[in-house]
Amino acid sequence: MRRLPRKDVVIVGLGWTGAIMGYELCQAGLQVVALERGPWRDTASDFNIGTAPDELRYAIRNELFVRPSQDTVTARNTPDQTALPIRRWGSFLPGNGVGGSGVHWNGHTWRFLPSDLNIRSHYKERYGEGIFPENHMIQDWGIGYDELEPYYDKFEYLCGIAGQAGNIKGQIQPGGNPFEGWRQRGYPTPPLKMQLNQDLFTKATTELGMHPFPLPAANMSQAYTNPLGVTQAPCTYCGFCERFGCANYSKSSPQTTILPVLMRHPGFEARTECEVMRVLMSPDGKTATGVTYIDAQGQEWEQPADLVILAAYQLWNVRLLLYSGIGKPYDVSTGEGVVGKNYAYQANSSVNGFFDDKLFNSWAGAGALGMTCDDYQGDAFDHTGLNFVGGANINGTTFHARPISARPVPPGTPRWGSAWKKATRDNYNTSTNVGSQGSVMSYRDCYLDLDPTYKDRLGRPLLRMTFDFKPNEERMSAYVTEKMVPIMRAMGAKHIVASPKKGPWSVVPYQTTHNTGGAIMGDNPRTSAVNKFQQTWDVPNVFVLGASAFPQNAGYNPTGTVGALAYYAADAIKGQYLKNPGQPLVQA
Amino acid sequence: MRAPLLAALAAAALLATAPARAAPDNFDQVERGRYLVTLGDCVACHMSTSGNHQGSQGFVGGRPIETPFGNIVTPNITPDRATGIGTWSADSFYRAMHEGIRPNGARLYPAFPYNYFTRMPREDTDAIFAYLNTLEPVSNAVDRNSLPFPLNIRASMLAWNALFFEPGEFRPDPNRSAEWNRGAYLVEGPGHCGACHTPKNLAGADRDSRRFAGGPLQGWFATNLTGDERTGLGAWSADEIVEYLQKGRNARSAASGPMAEVVEYSTSAMTEPDLRAIAAYLKAPPTAAPVAPARTALAADNPQMRTGEAIYVDRCGACHTRSGEGVARMFPRLAGSQVVQQEGSETLLRVVLQGVRAAYSPHAPTSPAMPAFGWRLNDDETAAVTTYIRNAWGNAAPPVSAADAARMRDTLRDRP
Questions:
Q1: CB contacts < 8 Å between A and B, how many?
Q2: Per the CB < 8 Å rule, is B315 touching A223?
Q3: Interface predicted TM-score (ipTM)
Q4: Which fold has domain B178-283?
Q5: Which of A11, A451, A550, B278 is the most exposed place for a label (fewest CB within 10 A)?
């Protein structure tokens, strides 16, 4: 192994959090190197308008994701089962390459509710201990909404989020989300242009006494220049966001918001196709000294650094901690240990409606084009007597009608042949959907650890996922989905199919890429892996960014909170850590 | 400080009639030189072949400069004694800049634009020389003899100079404003704009009758800078010229190709008063502009126009919009665009076939890029869509043929 010259900072992964942290620390005058195991990706060369909307290549053959032969996980529902490797991605799609999942996301950009962040104490105070489900591990985040607000704002203005504020400094705004936490100012850009689905959804939910508002979107409603001076162009509503890179500079991603500036920063260097093996530790195990990685030629290198930032996808962050011996691994039999605990996911549901007399033109969409209601989100509604914790947002979205996968046919239609073709023709443009994005709580037997059997191509154990949807989530999803049916009825559907979330969790059908937890934040080193600044309790010069820090998952897409937490950590490093390097920012 | 510079200063002190005193701190002179090097965009030609242009690497030479007569490889102008200009004096540097003659008497080729640099006064060339002498000397021997016979005989430039070269420093026009005169000096002197934007005769000299009319250049078409409304800068305001030079883009256009380098290395680092001066001069040239040929647009039912429109709607309209308006400062406006209506279609063909990245400037860092379409459009389709763009929305320019597209494809194959 060859040793390279020391850097101030090594960042593992060049997606959203790596790019944010890289830029902030370069601005602070540090020498930063980012190691990305996937390829370089850039708009005009890699998302050429002539090839970017290729459904077979990107959505079926998964070009932008990690190849399972390169890396995968094993999965099972309960600790008494034997986990098997995922050999073809299904339930979720881990990104790969520069930009990470920030390349292929849809662009829903949310703030969590204030009561999502202090969920344990909030529910306890409002409903008593009895509301929490069996075997739960629900924890407060160790950070309050007021602390995080400026960093939500910073991420939204980096991206140029299109939306309508609902609460500016405590003043409820017409047309916005009345349940959201306060924000210091409105969104940087106005909402996207809505489609027929959203018009009907708005009318129906208003009539039902709900509070519809535009879904906050990282798809540009107009050209926008962010505080770094980087410009994005208006969205063309092509409908190829999720699973695709944007060819039009219209979807916020590291490529379209930070990298044009960061890549030219004299303090910054990115090395692609470099897979980090582990974090190197000092002999006493109290300080990280750098990382080792293997480049595309198979050569192993040591990159010494004073500060190590894990900014990989949630699953891989947790695995690197386990490989490196940072933090005590979670032990399901005792409930002790912190690394790997509180894995959570997302409990989504849908209601499909088939219409006689409407043409939805679903082909023209955008990743986050939609109207939403938060009336059954988090603790925005009274849970007394409901027997579950959590909630979901309810969305009327139009984000794609891709030719291969969008085949909305009513149940009972044959799976192939002329009847199926006719049903496709009849329903493709006359059906639509209302969806919910639900929270998932944390449980003692839902966790991540290293698989005892299966190894990756480099000989390292695969990460093992143990997860299932619990009765709490099934009750929540059933309740919210029941609220969605009358909406679809009021929108005028003739035939309605409701699909609430039910266990067992299967790795096969796509559900969501919102995996969370495993290196969770909190205020106590016995129950969390990182403090509220995402600094590991045990090794103060290692920070772990991303959704791995979520103690449980809220009923929202995670990226807004991931971005805010990255900015929060960057500010703490710049303002506090660098004045006294190597010291914990929170005393245990 | 470098030894030769010390020697030059010592000589100056000895010759001075005033009582002997310490050599002056030349900070101001070096800073002036640094800025003049920016004005002259020296690194665009003299930077290393790796594209590194930081510090001395911007001046080590070795880049081949394409001319119609063959490639001319640029010299090392760091103060290295063996391979650079370390043994030169300020006098010999002035002579090279002013007359195109090296210290050993050899003639320089006018690919080095001494026909422009001759306008620079001695104090400016001295300042550049002082700045170059602050650079770390880098040893980089460059093979300078790449031209075919008889052009490889440098004495052949004697005849060229006799015919086309008139040495002489810039003389301000007392009837014009100080700003205009500053602009004239920048454009005609260090900025050497005409080196690309004025068409050349068969001997490679500027055709004075076609001043700033634009012409083919290294597989691109350098745009017309006259006041012509359609192909020149007639429709551009001074503010738009300033924004373009400072940011590499404005609401109409985006710099790309060789001009992107000019913006990145030179104009984006100019002071705003200097950019305003350039705009003032370009908007009020001293001599009447050559008249561009009148054009009428091809009829909309011309078969190439119909095919081109169909391709445009499918392939181009998402970014450049159906009406050709584009997106200001991101995707250039094609309706009324100066670039697409040039006499030669080289730039438009090249951008469509190969794609291109817009200029980077610290004032506008996005540097968006146009993807390549050469892999999906054949020569007929390329010709049709470029013809359409040149003749839609009120545009008017000569049609493009499939042979033009094929020729550009060959050019790009030879010179990616």
A1: 65
A2: no
A3: 0.90
A4: Cytochrome Bc1 Complex; Chain D, domain 2 (1.10.760)
A5: A451
